[in-house]
Design a protein that fits this description.
With 211 residues, the chain is of the alpha/beta class. It has seven helices and nine strands, in the order βαββαβαββαβαααββ. Strands 3-2-1-4-6-5-7 form a seven-stranded mixed beta sheet, sandwiched between helices. It has a two-stranded antiparallel sheet with strand order 8-9. The chain is globular and about 50 Å long. Bound molecules: guanosine-5'-triphosphate and L-phospholactate. This is 2-phospho-L-lactate guanylyltransferase. Keywords: GTP-binding, Nucleotide-binding, Nucleotidyltransferase, Transferase. GO terms for molecular function: GTP binding; phospholactate guanylyltransferase activity.
Length: 211
C-alpha cells in the first residue's frame, strides 16, 4: 500500500487569512505536511506520494515521491488512482492531529473503502483497496459523495469515527484544536503566535503579536 497526500502550497489555506498572513499560511501548511508525514512514517508507511502542482515548493529533505499535476484536486487524484493497482490511503495535508495509531487502525480495516469524515461534510482520509475501481469527488459534502460512489460501485464501506481526524485545519477557530490536542511542528508554530483565551465559553485563540 501507499499513502497519497494532495498538497498545494501557493496561497494555501486562504480561509485562515483572518488569522495568518499569506507568508505565514505558506509556512504553516508545510509544517502541517511535515507532521502528517511523521505520523505516516511512524505507522510504518514507507511509500508516500505527494501530489502537488508544478509550482509546488515541497521541501527537498522529505523522504517522499513528488507527483506533479496541473489539474484541479479531483482530476489530479482521479488521474493518479487510475494508474494504481495497490491500496491507496489518501490523507489531506491539513490534519496535524493525526497520530500513527490512527493510521495503523485505518489500514487494518478490511472493508473495501474506509472513509474518515471531516467536520461539515468533508473527507479527511479515504483508504481505497482497489483504486482502479473508485473515483473521488472532493468539495461540497464530499463525505456523502464518497459514500454514494462506494455504493454505486458495490464497495463495502467503513466510516472511521475520530475527533482528531475529523479536525482539518480550515478556519481560524480550528487553530485552537492544535493548541489543545496538537504536537510537533504545527503546535510549536501556533504557540509562537497565539495564546488561548478561556472562561465560561469554549477555548479560543488570541493573537499575542510575539512572532
Ligand atoms: N495537488 C493539489 N492539492 C490541493 C489542491 N487544492 C487543495 N489541495 C490540497 O488538498 C487538501 C485539502 O484542501 P483545502 O482544505 O481546500 O486546502 P486549501 O485549498 O489550501 O485551503 P482554502 O484556500 O482555505 O480552501 C490539502 O491537503 C491541500 O493542500 C490542488 O489544486 N492541487
Ligand atoms: C477537499 C475538501 O476539504 P475541505 O474544504 O473540507 O477542507 C473536502 O474534504 O471535500
Amino acid at each position: 500500500m501507499k499513502a497519497l497526500i494532495p498538497y498545494k502550497k501557493k496561497n494555501a489555506k486562504s480561509r485562515l487569512s483572518p488569522a495568518l498572513t499569506l507568508e505565514e499560511r505558506e509556512e504553516f501548511v508545510e509544517l502541517m505536511l511535515r507532521d502528517v508525514i511523521s505520523s505516516l512514517k511512524e505507522a510504518g508507511i514507507e511509500e508516500i506520494d505527494i501530489l502537488t502542482t508544478p509550482d509546488n515548493g515541497v521541501p527537498k529533505d522529505l523522504d517522499v515521491n513528488i507527483v506533479l499535476s496541473e489539474h484541479d484536486l479531483n482530476e489530479a487524484i482521479n488521474g493518479y488512482l487510475e494508474q494504481e493497482n495497490e491500496p491507496i490511503l489518501i490523507i489531506m495535508a491539513d490534519l496535524p492531529l493525526v497520530r500513527a495509531k490512527h493510521v495503523e487502525d485505518i489500514v487494518s480495516i478490511t472493508e473495501d473503502v474506509v472513509i474518515v469524515p471531516g467536520k461539515g461534510g468533508g473527507t479527511n482520509v479515504i483508504f481505497i483497496k482497489d483504486p482502479s475501481s473508485y473515483q473521488v469527488k472532493y468539495y461540497g459534502s464530499s463525505f456523502l459523495n464518497h459514500c454514494n460512489i462506494a455504493k454505486e460501485r458495490g464497495c463495502s464501506v467503513f466510516i472511521y469515527d475520530s475527533f482528531m481526524l475529523s479536525t482539518d485545519i480550515d478556519e481560524p477557530h480550528d487553530l485552537v484544536e492544535i493548541m489543545l490536542h496538537g504536537h510537533g511542528n504545527s503546535l510549536e508554530y501556533i504557540n509562537e503566535r497565539f495564546d488561548m483565551k478561556t472562561g465560561k465559553a469554549r477555548a479560543k485563540i488570541n493573537a499575542t503579536g510575539n512572532a
